[in-house]
Amino acid sequence: MQKAAVVQGYRRLLRARGKLFNGDSRALRESQVALRAAFEVNRHEADANRINDMIKDIGEAEDMMLHGLVQARLNERGNYEMQDVKPVDLGSGEFQPIDPAELEEQQRGDRSGIISSSKDKPSSN
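Request: output the structure for the sequence above.
Response:
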């Protein structure tokens, strides 16, 4: 089952890099080589927990490639242009600054929730 998930992840990454570098043959070629090399390094990994972690990393890498990166091209005016960039929904919550003491506590322990939304704050009523 893990092998199938790894193969599916590899294919998803190939498709994501195809979308990210569409029209850039050099970037497509080099990213394919780098992607293949990264998978080959871990081909003989036997630890199921480590493999599961790597499968999660595949999903994060795919998401980053599809939603966190853009490719810009130099135009004839000497400026860089991005084409077909879709806006990303960042949510509707208002973000509040974090209290330095809260940040220090976060850094010592659980790192989740470092950026907090005003919806997460208890009301002072």
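Confidence is low (pLDDT under 50) at residues 111-125.
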